[in-house]
Amino acid sequence: MNISPLLLDSLYLQESSMSTNNDTAVTDFSILPSDLKAEVELFSSKNNDKWLVVLQVALPESKTRPYNFKIVATGTFRVDKEYPEEKQYQLVYVNGASILYGFIREIVVTLTARGRWPTLVLPTVCFYTDYREKQLEAMKAEANEDKAEPKALESGNKAKRKKKGGKKHPGSG
């Protein structure tokens, strides 16, 4: 077993709301990944040595489900200095969101364990697929922007878009 190049500095619950469906029509006690609404946001310091990951997971209201909720968790991370800079975004997005999702899953289990209905355990999910979809969307958007920009400005604008220190990363939410 190796030590991860992603180091967790802090983890906290930013927002939590949950309600119980008291309708007797509740029949659906299993939750599929497609039932959940998840949003990942990434922010980094100017030199990418510190990262903030925000994960929001929600289960929208349904007459057949026992619970609905919205939970937002935040984590601060560092990446090992030896880790390649071009791979940092993927590492933080996929692994950071996965760590936060496990934290949210435990909160949901704790809250629903005392409820009227059976304990709700969130399904496992893969943030790599979400990461790839967002990267493809960002690449398409950038390609469309590049077509509209004059050639002389193209390389300067690209460099500015890639170096957004201390700001939200494109394609992260």
Q: Which CATH first-tier class would you pick?
A: Alpha Beta
Find the structural class using helix and strand composition. Answer: alpha+beta
Name the CATH superfamily assignment. Answer: SecB-like
Q: What's the arrangement of strands in the largest beta sheet?
A: 1-4-3-2
What is the global morphology?
globular
Q: Approximately what portion of the residues adopt beta-strand conformation?
A: 25-35%
Key words describing this protein structure:
single chain, 173 residues, alpha+beta, Bacterial Protein-export protein SecB, 4-stranded antiparallel β-sheet
Task: Set down the secondary structure blueprint.
Elements (H helix, E strand, L loop, with lengths): L5 E15 L16 E8 L6 E9 L7 E13 L5 H29 L13 H22 L2 H12 L11
Antiparallel strand pairs: 1-4, 2-3, 3-4
Helix pairs in contact: 1-2
